[in-house]
Write a structure and sequence with these properties.
Strand content: 5-15%
Strand order of the largest sheet: 2-1-3-4-5
Helix content: 40-55%
Oligomer: single chain
CATH class: Alpha Beta
Shape: globular
Number of helices: 9
Amino acid sequence: MILRSATLIALVVAIACRGRSEERSAKRGDSSIQQPASSNLPDSRPAIVFLGTSLTAGYGLGDPSLAYPALIQAKLDSAGRAFRVVNAGLSGESSAGALDRIEWLLSRDRVAVLVVETGANDGLRGQDPDSVRARIQSILDRARRADPPPRLVIAGMEAIPNLGPEYVRRFRGIYPALARANNAALIPFLLEGVAGVDSLNQDDGIHPTARGQRIIAETVWGVLERVTREGREDATARPRE
């Protein structure tokens, strides 16, 4: 997908600039994680963890229930899927920060599905795509060592166009290559239908509005509906005699 250069540059710059101090806090393992508030009782349902940036965190919305992970929770509940969504989005985070956090995230929850949305900030900083891919691969490797390992979902992102068409091509290729290599489900572009549309973004022209978040939720649900349905079928399948 080809986006207007100015829009995509502004998008990635803002993602990187929001909350770099939060990324440093996350490396110490004290990041704030939002979960849908339903009761004070422990929730034993397996978790779907969204590891991401400000786009996942729902920057600027004021209410975490408007961010797409919470909207996914509502869709899961309506579909009768017994999963608990954990919004582990953090503004300003790079793939290195996400890698630093993955151990803690996997240790604190019984993770059934891990959705990885990272890399936009690396692209802004001109990080080598091979290095970005290697760090995301390390995240996936750590996830696969969990017992049991979670199902994996990778959310694609775009690089800034002013780094040149070759860099953009290599960066874009990170996500489908990782999905193929790790048998992971792929969301080709998280902001499909939202990036560059003024009416779907906040006043900064960058972060999605509540309406934009609803479109993202539909994009993500198009993948997660299948992933969670297959997970349920696997759990209830009976071995052949």
